[in-house]
């Protein structure tokens, strides 16, 4: 019968340590005074001076207010209560030294609380964590002490005083949760994040995120709606700390950091784990402090076996007292809630550290790109580093502490098991040791397998990025099919390489399940047949042993699985380290900083010269140029001429520091240079953004620049004018418009020197001459302003405007020829202008200011995902994903997976049956072992089928469907779509679909199955415990209604917020030479930092709401445990020892299973964002019109029989984000006769290229176009483009060898010696083979040959010639096909072109007069229409 609680008197028993007071359910007073008063007070006394001395060095951040005075008032009240208690404790018979010491230490701790409350309020933004933690512990202890005082007689007012002290503790704790945002100084309120201003328990229980969850539940979220992170997440500040550890020769700011950084500062950056060490030394305490809550979680976890044993014993104890019953229930609540809170805390600190590391590493990547040459930069490699490799580093941050804790937990597990089964406990080490040995082998191979996989991914992403930038020309040339097959082959090669890691992954899962399933069998066998016979093992001991094994093996198994992934993470970190450790070409910025330009000091003396400069290329007999001495005088105009590939571009890049000289030097004053590359670099933004760049907006100066670059007329024609969006890479502009925008950008800052590399090549002669006259003519803007201009050109007409000409000769020598006497630009009037120009220049080059990224504009809610799906999700996604596996194959696998997962609980169920039926029969052990072995086999079989058959198939299907959508997408859609978003799909999303998502999806299925089994077993533990089943169902329903709405949105915001950052760093190869030349390094870094910080917000908030879910479900497990224990101890007749033992053992695994299920669910939901985005892209992308090719349509198969082209009232349009239905060509009616050569002329932007694109059906058009007697609307677009030989202005550079680029239409591995001979012959005739043959010939990678733009145009021309020979095409389109080739070479090549395309209808967009003169007809376009004059041969002259 139950024993009721009774009052006790203070006696000698209270003078001993205890801790339990004999005969009662209470502690002795001595134990309480020493452990509940003195110990925590001493800890607070030690921490207080350290914390105060640290805080008072800061600037005050808050003013006193009512909140502070309330806290101090209650602190004084606390001192009063403890002072009153001293009076009672010094009175006999209560007086003891321990009692007096405890009372005095309590007063001292109260004084410390008061001091900390004041100092923390004034000098710290966040409420005091030390005070809150102390008050939380003190509250529990004071409640226990108050209970003890009230149970004892003769203590007078100590009992009520104890209650008052507990109430004051609680009140102070609640006041600590009140935010002091309104009391902050100097705008700190707006900069401080919501988390840092929240109280201790609000942060630990993630109550601060509730407002975000509620907002996401009710409405559509944007990044600006998410809580701010605060200054502690600022990437620039974190990177500054990192550099002190990573860079050699840096003096650490503190003695501690000096000591810990000494090792890495003197270490080679290429040494093993150098980057890992630097990351640790950057934030050592953030890394170390994770261990505190992690070890607390271990302590709570290993309290479970003792609780289980006591509950099982209590169920059979009819004399269990009410106090003991309440104690068991209270202990259950404390243990399970402690597990949940400590786990959420350490996981939160882990992910917080991972967020810090992400900001640090990506920021360093931005800085590193500034130090590398353009040929060193691989934009897709950087994308891979920022996605796959950063994800690997994140895995290290989150799993490392678990690996350490598993070792501690193994030792604790052995200790607990020893008390139950004796020496058999060490048998745990046998399966664990075997698993460790096997996984150590796997771990060594996993890093290499992951590196190889990432390398293949990098190759595919690089090729995709290159193709995406050329989509317009890929469609025009009919190469879409080739590039589709090529990219799919890369995907298949990537998947094939990934099988190595997947084999290792299967080995990991099988090993983990082997350890988990066999360990109980081995230990129980050792106990039964060695240390303790079955008859001596009680039911309580058996289930205690099973729970201990479960607790020990789950984290150990998790860590064993994590080890290979940690190795893969280290491999990712090593890849990042190799990137950081690459040899730097630019040690420091070559230009002045904004501070230098803004100062009153005069600019340095102008200097720009080559001193004995030489560049010798490997494997070339003659140098590009040798021993060149050139002095470019201030204000002089120089033009560089020479044949294709002679070294003009190399010399210009040497002048701006982008090419390293073999010998000699470049002497240049340290200031910005206006630079334009052969290929115009255009940022994704408006025309205004591209021209003004990072300079200050000046409307009048902008008008002048637009007029000088002949852009004023183009801007007037555009619906949005200067604010017209240009698209990624300027895809919405013509080639000439891109060149003029780039030129305007180079002029706008008004530098003292400009380097222009063939910038006028895409322009018609009239426009080019007009612009040159306005800029460098006698009254030209740049000549008047004294700007030194060096430009390359291939047209003779330009040379008359030069002061000197630099002639490249074939033997590598360079001659400087004076064209006209040098003008005098050094008088006082011009000096004043130059200084004024410099002043204007410095005014424009202010800090980021107006040119900072408009972050609110970056958060563009995806048009593809409607608001309902974005908030509430799309359940059809799961079915869509499953279809990629194959419905039948997946269904069969799912049945196998459910059986395999459910079999993991059969051994414990078998134990209950064994103990109920025949507890003394050892033969039942055979069945127990057999069930475990069958489970391991089923898991292995399910994993092998899934990872080796289903996942590879799914990965191929996803990539092929997405790739086909991309290739068939309307060009208008692609020009409006952000390239960063598309690359996100092919890089990050494809990585998720092939690696992370399949793993999380399978694990989720396994965990859900085991969770259902656990719930059923737990519900059977006691009759009334079945109430937990509706509780669990209701919990899942509420969570999916409340949590998932916000989770989905934040997940999408995370992906979207990263896209601008990926796009920014993805274009570094083309942008970096310009950034360095313009002196925009500082602004580039600031923009990157803004984008990084912008992307950090949803990245971190996503982790926080995941931790909110973790703690909610773990506290729900605590509630289930309390219900189960309550039903078991209050209604003992409703259960049995075996039933409650089995239920509690499965409750232990239920907690672990629920935890893992939460983890996999969260990760799976996050990864399913890739499914949503990819499906949306596939389903909603507008495709080009499809025409079914009928097999019996003989006319189509032989089409076109002739080359006649007819246009009747044809108008074409295109759209941009800022203007709809922009005119391409307007109401054009004309006929191109069969075999006719027609030249199309006109100023840039007049519609020449639009004519070509309209004829290829890549633009929306009205009217009728007939080619070869057939309406092109009735011809499949792929066939249309394959039947027409098209040579676009920029060409199409394919990834791969020269052979692949020249003859890509031939099937793989079908090249023969004869076909290779044709290629070599064609390249030789076009005078480009000499630059290819000595460097690998046809097998050389075209992208690594460093050919000039003109030489590449000749390679693309060779492709068209061979293609025409093969297809016998009747029609040829050429759009400035040789614009970058010098005139002499061009005239020679024209004979080859005329011979190769003889008899074809040729439409040739050109700016060269002699080309038009050789044509049968000339069409002049203006504003999309054919001009009034159509001149035909014979007898006409074109000028």
What's a quick, concise take on this entry?
With 1439 residues, the chain is of the alpha/beta class. 60% of the residues lie in helices and 8% in strands.
Describe this structure in words.
It is a single chain. The protein is α/β, with parallel strands linked by helices and 1439 residues long. Helix content is 60%, strand content 8%. The chain contains 49 helices and 21 strands. A six-stranded mixed β-sheet has the order 7-8-9-5-10-11, with helices on both faces. Strands 17-18-19-14-20-21 form a six-stranded mixed β-sheet. The protein has a four-stranded antiparallel β-sheet with strand order 13-12-15-16. Strand 12 (1205-1216) and strand 13 form a beta hairpin. Helix 35 runs parallel beside helix 41 (1137-1180) and helix 46 crosses helix 47 (1349-1367). The longest helix is centred in the middle third of the chain and has 52 residues, at 480-531. The termini are far apart. 51% of the residues are buried. The model is unreliable at 1-6, 249-267, 588-601, 821-865 and 1433-1439 (pLDDT under 50).
Largest sheet: 6 strands, mixed
Strand order of the largest sheet: 7-8-9-5-10-11
Count of β-strands? 21
Query: How many angstroms separate the termini?
Result: 117 Å
Helix content: 55-70%
Helix count? 49
Amount of beta strand: 5-15%
The average pLDDT value, as a whole number, equals: 80
List the helices and strands and how they pair.
Layout: E1 8-9, H1 29-55, H2 66-89, H3 97-123, H4 129-151, E2 152-153, H5 158-176, H6 188-191, H7 200-204, H8 210-218, H9 235-246, H10 255-265, H11 274-282, H12 284-288, H13 291-301, H14 304-315, H15 322-369, H16 379-421, H17 429-469, H18 471-477, H19 480-531, H20 539-580, H21 594-598, E3 608-615, E4 625-631, E5 637-641, H22 648-655, E6 663-668, E7 674-676, H23 687-692, H24 699-708, H25 712-717, H26 735-747, E8 753-756, H27 765-776, H28 781-784, E9 788-792, E10 804-808, E11 814-818, H29 828-844, H30 855-858, H31 867-872, H32 876-883, H33 887-902, H34 906-917, H35 924-968, H36 971-976, H37 979-1019, H38 1028-1066, H39 1068-1078, H40 1081-1130, H41 1137-1180, H42 1194-1197, E12 1205-1216, E13 1219-1232, E14 1237-1241, H43 1248-1255, E15 1260-1267, E16 1270-1271, H44 1277-1282, E17 1284-1287, H45 1298-1302, H46 1313-1325, H47 1349-1367, E18 1371-1375, H48 1383-1396, E19 1401-1405, H49 1409-1413, E20 1417-1422, E21 1425-1432
Parallel strand pairs: 1-2, 5-9, 5-10, 7-8, 8-9, 14-19, 14-20, 17-18, 18-19
Antiparallel strand pairs: 3-4, 3-6, 10-11, 12-13, 12-15, 15-16, 20-21
Helix pairs in contact: 1-3, 1-4, 2-3, 2-5, 4-5, 8-38, 9-11, 9-15, 10-11, 13-15, 13-16, 14-15, 14-20, 14-41, 15-16, 15-40, 16-17, 16-20, 17-19, 17-20, 17-37, 19-20, 19-35, 20-41, 33-35, 33-37, 34-35, 34-41, 35-37, 35-41, 37-38, 37-41, 38-40, 40-41, 46-47
């Amino acid at each position: 019968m139950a024993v009721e609680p009774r009052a006790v008197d203070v006696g000698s028993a209270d003078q001993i340590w205890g801790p339990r007071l004999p005969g009662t359910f209470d502690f002795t007073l001595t134990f309480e005074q020493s452990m509940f008063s003195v110990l925590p007070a001493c800890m607070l006394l030690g921490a207080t001076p350290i914390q105060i001395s640290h805080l008072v060095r800061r600037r005050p951040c808050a003013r006193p207010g009512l909140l502070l005075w309330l806290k101090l008032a209650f602190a004084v009240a606390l001192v009063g209560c403890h002072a009153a208690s001293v009076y009672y404790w010094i009175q006999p018979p209560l007086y003891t030294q321990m009692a007096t010491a405890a009372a005095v230490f309590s007063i001292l701790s109260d004084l410390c609380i008061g001091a900390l409350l004041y100092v923390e309020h004034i000098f710290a933004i966040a409420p005091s964590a030390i005070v809150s933690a102390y008050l939380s512990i003190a509250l529990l202890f004071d409640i226990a002490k108050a209970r003890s005082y009230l149970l004892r007689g003769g203590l007078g007012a100590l009992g009520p005083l104890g209650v008052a002290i507990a109430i004051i503790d609680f009140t102070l704790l609640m006041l600590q949760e009140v935010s002091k945002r309104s009391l902050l100084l100097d705008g700190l309120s707006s900069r401080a994040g919501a988390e840092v201003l929240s109280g201790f328990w609000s942060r630990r229980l993630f109550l601060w995120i509730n407002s975000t969850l509620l907002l996401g539940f009710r409405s559509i979220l944007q990044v600006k709606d998410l809580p701010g992170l605060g200054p502690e997440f600022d990437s620039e500040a974190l990177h500054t700390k990192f550099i002190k550890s990573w860079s050699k020769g840096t003096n650490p700011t503190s003695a501690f950091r000096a000591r810990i950084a000494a090792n890495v500062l003197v270490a080679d950056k290429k040494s093993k784990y150098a980057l890992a060490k630097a990351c640790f030394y950057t934030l050592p305490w953030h890394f170390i402090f994770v261990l505190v809550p992690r070890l607390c979680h271990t302590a709570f976890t290993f309290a479970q076996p003792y609780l289980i044993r006591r509950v099982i014993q209590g169920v059979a104890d009819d004399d269990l007292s009410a106090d003991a019953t309440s104690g068991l229930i209270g202990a259950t609540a404390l243990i399970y809630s402690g597990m949940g809170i400590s786990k959420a805390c350490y996981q939160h600190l882990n992910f917080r550290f991972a967020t810090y590391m992400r900001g640090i590493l990506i920021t360093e990547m931005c800085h590193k790109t500034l130090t590398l040459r353009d040929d060193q930069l691989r934009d897709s490699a950087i994308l891979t580093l920022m996605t796959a490799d950063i994800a690997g580093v994140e895995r290290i941050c989150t799993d490392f502490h678990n690996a350490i804790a598993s070792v501690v937990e193994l030792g604790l597990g052995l200790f607990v098991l020893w008390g139950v089964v004796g020496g058999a406990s060490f048998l745990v080490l046998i399966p664990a040791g075997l698993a460790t040995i096997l996984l150590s082998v796997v771990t060594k191979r996993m890093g290499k397998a992951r590196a190889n996989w990432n390398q293949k991914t990098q190759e595919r992403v690089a090729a995709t990025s290159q193709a995406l930038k050329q989509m317009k020309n890929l469609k025009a040339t009919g190469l879409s099919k080739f590039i589709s097959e090529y990219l799919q082959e890369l995907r298949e090669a990537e998947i094939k390489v990934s099988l190595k890691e997947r084999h290792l992954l299967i080995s990991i899962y099988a090993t983990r399940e082997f350890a988990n399933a066999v360990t109980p069998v081995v230990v129980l066998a050792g106990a039964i047949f060695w240390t303790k016979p079955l008859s001596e093992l009680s039911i309580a001991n058996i289930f205690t042993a099973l729970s201990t094994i479960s607790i020990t093996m789950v984290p150990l198994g998790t860590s064993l699985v994590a080890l290979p992934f940690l190795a893969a993470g280290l491999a990712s970190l090593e890849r990042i380290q190799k990137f950081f450790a690459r040899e730097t070409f630019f040690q420091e910025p070559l230009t002045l900083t904004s501070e230098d330009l803004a100062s009153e000091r005069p600019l340095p003396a102008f200097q720009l010269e080559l001193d004995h400069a030489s560049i010798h290329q490997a494997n070339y007999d003659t140098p590009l140029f040798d021993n060149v001495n050139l002095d470019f005088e201030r204000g002089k105009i120089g033009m560089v001429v020479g044949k294709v590939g002679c070294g003009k571009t190399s010399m210009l890049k040497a002048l701006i520091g982008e090419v390293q000289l073999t010998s000699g030097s470049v002497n240049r004053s340290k200031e910005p240079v206006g630079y334009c590359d052969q290929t115009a670099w255009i940022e994704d933004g408006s025309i205004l953004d591209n021209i003004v760049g990072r300079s200050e907006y000046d409307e009048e100066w902008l008008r002048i620049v637009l007029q000088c670059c002949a852009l004023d007329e183009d801007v007037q024609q555009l619906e949005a004018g200067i604010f017209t969006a240009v698209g990624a890479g300027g895809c919405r502009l013509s080639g000439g418009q891109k060149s003029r925008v780039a030129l305007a950008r180079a002029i706008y800052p008004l530098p003292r020197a400009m380097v222009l590399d063939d910038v006028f090549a895409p322009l018609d002669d009239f426009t080019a001459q007009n612009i040159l006259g306005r800029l460098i003519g006698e009254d030209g803007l740049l000549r008047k302003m004294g700007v030194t201009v060096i430009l390359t050109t291939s047209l003779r007409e330009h040379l008359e405007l030069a002061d000197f000409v630099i002639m490249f000769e074939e033997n590598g020598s360079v001659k400087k020829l004076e064209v006209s006497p040098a003008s005098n630009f050094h008088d006082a009037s011009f000096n004043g202008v130059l200084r004024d120009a410099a002043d204007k220049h410095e005014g424009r080059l202010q800090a980021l200011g107006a040119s900072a990224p408009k972050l609110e504009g970056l958060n563009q809610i995806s048009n593809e995902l409607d608001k309902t799906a974005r908030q509430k999700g799309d359940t059809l996604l799961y079915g869509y994903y499953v279809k990629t596996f194959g419905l039948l194959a997946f269904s069969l696998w799912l049945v196998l997976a459910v059986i395999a997962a459910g079999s993991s609980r059969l051994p414990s169920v078998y134990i209950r049956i064994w103990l109920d039926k025949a507890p003394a029969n050892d033969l039942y052990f055979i069945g127990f072992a057999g069930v475990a072995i069958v489970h391991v086999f089923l898991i292995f079989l399910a994993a092998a089928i899934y990872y080796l058959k289903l996942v590879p198939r799914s990965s191929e299907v996803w990539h092929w469907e997405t790739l086909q959508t991309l290739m068939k997408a309307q060009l208008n859609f692609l020009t409006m779509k952000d390239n960063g978003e598309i690359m996100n799909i092919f890089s990050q999303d494809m990585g998720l679909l092939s690696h992370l998502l399949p793993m999380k999806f399978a694990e989720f299925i396994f965990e859900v199955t085991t969770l259902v089994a656990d719930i059923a077993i737990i519900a059977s533990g006691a009759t009334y415990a079945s109430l937990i089943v509706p509780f669990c169902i209701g919990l899942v329903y509420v969570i999916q209604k409340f949590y998932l709405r916000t989770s989905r949105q934040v997940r999408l915001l995370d992906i979207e917020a990263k896209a601008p950052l990926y796009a920014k760093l993805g274009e570094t190869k083309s942008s970096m030479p310009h950034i360095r030349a313009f002196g925009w390094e500082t602004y580039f870094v600031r923009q990157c930092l803004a984008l990084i910080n912008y992307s950090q917000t949803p990245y971190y908030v996503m982790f926080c709401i995941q931790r909110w879910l973790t703690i909610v479900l773990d506290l729900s497990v605590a509630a289930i445990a309390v219900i189960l224990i309550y039903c078991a101890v209050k209604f003992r007749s409703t259960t049995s020892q075996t039933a409650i033992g089995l239920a509690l053992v499965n409750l232990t695994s239920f907690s672990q299973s629920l935890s893992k299920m939460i983890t996999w669910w969260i990760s799976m939901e996050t990864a399913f964002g890739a499914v949503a985005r990819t499906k949306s892209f596939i389903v909603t992308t507008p495709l080009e019109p499809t025409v079914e090719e009928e097999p019996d349509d003989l006319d189509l198969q032989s089409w076109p029989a002739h080359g006649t082209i007819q246009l009747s009232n044809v108008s074409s349009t295109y759209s941009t984000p800022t203007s709809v239905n922009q005119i391409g060509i307007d109401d054009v009616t004309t006929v191109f006769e069969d075999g006719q050569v027609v030249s199309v002329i006109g100023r840039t932007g007049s519609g020449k290229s639009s004519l070509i694109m309209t004829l290829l059906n890549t633009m929306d058009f009205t009217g009728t176009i007939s080619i070869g007697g057939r309406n092109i609307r009735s011809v499949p677009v792929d066939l249309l483009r394959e039947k027409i030989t098209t040579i676009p202005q920029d060409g199409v550079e394919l990834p791969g060898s020269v052979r692949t680029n020249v003859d890509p239409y031939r099937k793989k591995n079908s090249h023969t010696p004869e076909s290779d001979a044709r290629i070599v012959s064609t390249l030789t005739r076009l005078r480009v083979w000499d630059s290819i043959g000595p460097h690998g010939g046809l097998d050389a990678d075209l992208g690594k040959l460093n050919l000039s733009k003109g030489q590449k145009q000749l390679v693309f021309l060779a492709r068209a010639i061979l293609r025409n020979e093969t297809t016998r095409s009747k029609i040829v389109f050429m759009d400035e096909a040789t614009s970058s080739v010098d005139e002499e070479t061009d005239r020679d090549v024209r004979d080859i072109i005329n011979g190769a395309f003889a008899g074809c209808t040729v439409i040739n967009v050109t700016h060269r007069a002699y080309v038009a003169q050789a044509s049968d007809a000339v069409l002049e376009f203006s504003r999309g229409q054919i001009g009034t004059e159509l001149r035909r041969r014979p007898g006409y002259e074109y000028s």
